[in-house]
């Protein structure tokens, strides 16, 4: 017997990523949209399908997440909240969803390691699945895997991430995650050959664990891009991923929505469910 579609609430439904999520859910057979939340007051009450351009869905946008989560609990089981909002509010959004028994799939970056740990403990106590994904692109996961493999043979590496100028946090969650994966290889990178100094503070970017440098670029016209550059005497090995359309993230989002209903705690990173 066919399973009922997974009910999904989209938080940040009128944002750049939220719009793509709404459209992806509207065209998928095994998920169904039951709520759309956005803080933009001028959109309150409007049909989310008409707002995002995929035709009427008979789901109004409201600006009250708590009310939407409460309604989702009453109507459906195995509900999922997809969150693409703002770093300042995502922690509370995720806690609220877990408290209601709604499984969060989080694309908003900017959560601190301490916040992620607190959410993991909260999700474990509630036996509620939660997925925090710095980047939903399958191509990014493959780039990170290639970087981990290359790290066995290179001692020097730097990461450059480039995003649109409306991105609120830096470095990107993808760059932080990539640096974490490299740091877990049990080695320190970029052994100094000279005593460096900066004429302008930040010229050399920020330093992540194991002395990995991350540089952030913010410009209009960009979407999401990352380079991992390895160097050794006589050669440079560059891994680069470019995004030209936010639709590229949607297969990963739908994969996460399906997977989170099977989890009993928090999982960090798309690669953990591939």
Can you describe what's shown?
Strand 8 and strand 9 form a beta hairpin. With 274 residues, this protein is of the alpha/beta class. It has a seven-stranded parallel sheet with strand order 3-2-1-4-5-6-12, sandwiched between helices. The protein has a five-stranded mixed sheet with strand order 8-9-7-10-11. The model has no long low-confidence stretch (mean pLDDT 95). It is elongated, with a radius of gyration of 20 Å. It contains eight helices and twelve strands. Helix content is 32%, strand content 24%. Helix 1 packs across helix 8 and helix 6 (138-150) packs parallel to helix 7 (173-183). It has helices spanning 16-27, 48-52, 65-75, 90-99, 113-126, 138-150, 173-183, 250-260, and strands at residues 6-11, 31-37, 61-62, 80-83, 103-106, 130-132, 156-163, 206-208, 212-218, 224-232, 235-243, 266-268.
Strand order of the largest sheet: 3-2-1-4-5-6-12
Mean pLDDT: 95
Instruction: Give the helix/strand class.
Output: alpha/beta
Straight-line N-to-C gap: 26 Å
Tally the beta strands: 12
Kindly provide the radius of gyration, computed on alpha-carbon positions and rounded to a whole number of angstroms: 20 Å
User: Main sheet, how many strands, which sense, barrel?
Assistant: 7 strands, parallel
Helix coverage percent of residues?
A: 25-40%
Beta-sheet strand percentage?
Answer: 15-25%
Q: How many helices in DSSP terms?
A: 8
Give start-end ranges of low-pLDDT stretches: none
What is the 3D form?
A: elongated
Helix and strand element order: EHEHEHEHEHEHEHEEEEHE
């Amino acid at each position: 017997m066919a399973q009922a579609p997974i009910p999904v609430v989209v938080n940040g439904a009128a944002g750049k990523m939220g719009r793509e999520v709404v459209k992806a859910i509207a065209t998928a057979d095994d998920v169904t949209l039951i709520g759309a939340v956005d803080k933009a007051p001028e959109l309150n009450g409007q049909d989310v399908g008409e707002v995002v351009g995929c035709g009427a869905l008979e789901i109004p946008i409201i600006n009250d997440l708590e009310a939407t989560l409460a309604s989702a609990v009453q109507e459906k089981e195995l509900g999922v909240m997809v969150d693409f909002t703002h770093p300042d509010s995502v922690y509370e959004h995720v806690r609220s969803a877990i408290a209601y028994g709604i499984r969060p799939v989080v694309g908003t970056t900017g959560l601190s390691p301490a916040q992620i740990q607190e959410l993991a403990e909260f999700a474990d106590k509630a036996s509620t699945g939660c997925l925090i994904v710095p980047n939903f692109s399958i191509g990014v996961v493959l780039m990170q895997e290639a970087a981990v493999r290359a790290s066995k043979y290179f001692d020097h590496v730097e990461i450059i991430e480039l995003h649109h100028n409306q991105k609120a946090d830096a470095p990107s969650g993808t760059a932080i995650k990539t640096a974490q994966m490299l740091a877990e290889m049990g080695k320190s990178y970029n052994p100094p050959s000279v005593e460096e100094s900066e004429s302008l503070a930040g010229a050399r970017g920020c330093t992540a664990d194991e002395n990995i440098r991350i540089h952030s670029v913010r410009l209009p016209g960009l979407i999401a891009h990352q380079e991992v550059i390895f160097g050794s005497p006589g050669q440079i090995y560059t891994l680069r991923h470019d995004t030209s359309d936010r639709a590229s993230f949607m297969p990963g989002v739908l994969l996460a929505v399906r997977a989170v209903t099977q989890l009993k705690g928090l999982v960090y990173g798309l690669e953990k469910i591939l």
